Amino acid sequence: MEKCQHSQHTKHLTDLLDQSALVQIKALQSGQISAPDLMAATLDRIEDRNPKINAIVALQDRGRLIEQAQIAKGPLAGLPIAIKDLADTKGIRTTYGSPIFADHIPKADSTMVAALKDAGAVIIGKTNTPEWGLGSHSYNPVYGVTRNPYNTSKSAGGSSGGAGAALASRMVALADGSDMMGSLRNPAGWNNIFGFRPSFGLVANSGPVDVFLGQLSTNGPMARHVEDLELLLKLQSYKDQTNPHSVGPYISKDKTTRQKIGWLSDWGGAYPMENGVLELCEAGLSVLSDLRHDIINLKPPFSAEALWDSWTTLRSWAVAEKSRALFENPTTHDLLKPAALWEIERGLKLSGAEIAKASAIRSDWFRHTATMKVDLLALPSAQLFPFDADLDWPKDIAGVKMDTYHRWMEVVVPASLTGLPALSVPVGFGPDSTPMGLQLIGHRGKDAEILALGRSYEAATNWIAMTPFE
After folding, report:
1. Of 253, 328, 420, 429, which shows the fewest CB atoms inside 10 Å?
2. What's the pLDDT tens digit per position in 290-303?
3. Which entry of 136, 138, 155, 183 is annotated as an active-site residue?
4. Is position 159 annotated as part of the catalytic site?
5. Cα of 108 vs its chain's centroid, Å
6. 10 Å Cβ neighbour count for 182?
7. From the CB of residue 290, how many other CB atoms can be counted at a distance below 10 Å?
8. Do the Cβ atoms of 320 and 346 come closer than 8 Å?
9. What's the Cα-to-Cα distance from 219 to each of 180, 185, 225, 249, 450, rounded to whole Å?
10. Is the full-model pTM beyond 0.85?
11. CA 9 to CA 16: how far, in whole Å?
12. pLDDT tens column, 433-461
């Protein structure tokens, strides 16, 4: 009898790992399961699945994690979570994917990590990321390559690729990420999950950084369910009194009204697309049409080349200013990846006139989006399906050569450039059993409306049931 009960308990825990974070938290809070048992089951699953995909790195000691789960208190009730390896975690190795920081152990948590701990989350380790978060393929010389759970010969995307793969593999139920150039959207699309880039300022980045010029990047949530995204977003979006841009906390909306969604497809041919990408995205839009939202085919509303010129200028300038000291130090210079060196060298050569021109283009695009007669814009989350994991980056799409290491992700720039909220939703599978996503891009501050739409889309689809491990 005892053996039978133990077997049933183990199966219950295993099944629970496949459920949402909200379901797991409810089970913890009601006493159906204990936090140490959930932690043990989570670590067992990581031991089984992570070697195949390399999503979770710097995994902490099992005994200590179970002890931490035992005493954890708060709304997350001891829920296990791994943090993207760009955010500092006290006492846990934080490398930023760089050999320069291969042995770096922060003495303090980032403000976001501290907020998660205060809510009762237990930090089990980190999720893998490309070096310095540059590029949408999660590989680095410290931890190696993160592979796609649906096809381990393919990329899991990036820079939040470890987070996306960990969620898809059901090793964690919540994951944080950050998004400068699609890093919450590309890996969400490629891992059949949801990823949300919030409006700039909703999740405020604390610290002694410039608060006017550096508005290209933001932290945000990833999850298998939209309600879980909102759960994490509420914790990430606390009102930060030290950051004047902070507009949190996030407040959800029960349901969405009828929305006008402008479908931009391949931006009039400006964005090369692999065969099958647009068709899957259009199928996803048909779901929204069935939900009585209006889908409108839009002509290109702005010059794609102007957006790209503005983006690459402002991005290189931001990267150069952030990494100048490492670039100028002979000891660390040669340990920077080629993409970082390229960005920094470009950024340091920019003139004030070039930066002003880029900012003027960004301002024109922001004004244009604010006056558009649609509620949302829709674009694919990526321009191609997951590529070979052993590549550094794809050199062409549909026969069109890519002229930079990140040109193949140009489709994410319209939202990133002006800090617009963007939700990546799953739309199905293409070649080699690899997933694809669709970006739903809203007006600044309309985060709750987009996520309410995402909840109704999720309820009308069943892509999340397609798990990579059976």
Report:
1. 328
2. 999 999 999 999 99
3. 183
4. yes
5. 23
6. 30
7. 9
8. yes
9. 9, 12, 18, 14, 17
10. yes
11. 10
12. 999 999 999 999 999 999 999 999 999 99
Q: Are 95 and 120 in contact (CB under 8 A)?
A: no
Handedness of CA 129, 130, 132, 133 (dihedral sign): negative
Name the token pair of 457: 């889309």
Q: How far apart are CA 400 and CA 276, in angstroms?
A: 16
**Residues in CB range of 227: below 8 A, 6 or more apart:** 20, 22, 455
The rounded radius of gyration (Å) of the Cα atoms in the chain is 21
Residue by residue, DSSP assigns 407-436 as: GGGGGGHHHHTTT--EEEEEEEE-GGG-EE
Q: Give yes or no: 84 in active site.
A: yes
First-to-last C-alpha distance (Å) of the chain: 28
Phi and psi torsions of 126, nearest 5°: -120, 165
Which contiguous run of DSSP H or E holds residue 252? none
Catalytic residue among 159, 169, 316, 424: 159
State the Cα–Cα distance between residues 298 and 210, nearest whole angstrom. Answer: 36
Name the token pair of 203: 């999740």
User: DSSP character for 100?
Assistant: G
7 falls in which pLDDT band (50, 70, 90)? low
Which residue in the block uniquely carries the two structure tokens 């880029």?
358
The phi and psi torsions of 424 (rounded to 5 degrees) equal -95, 125
Which of 20, 84, 126, 178 is catalytic? The answer is 84
3-class DSSP state of 277: helix
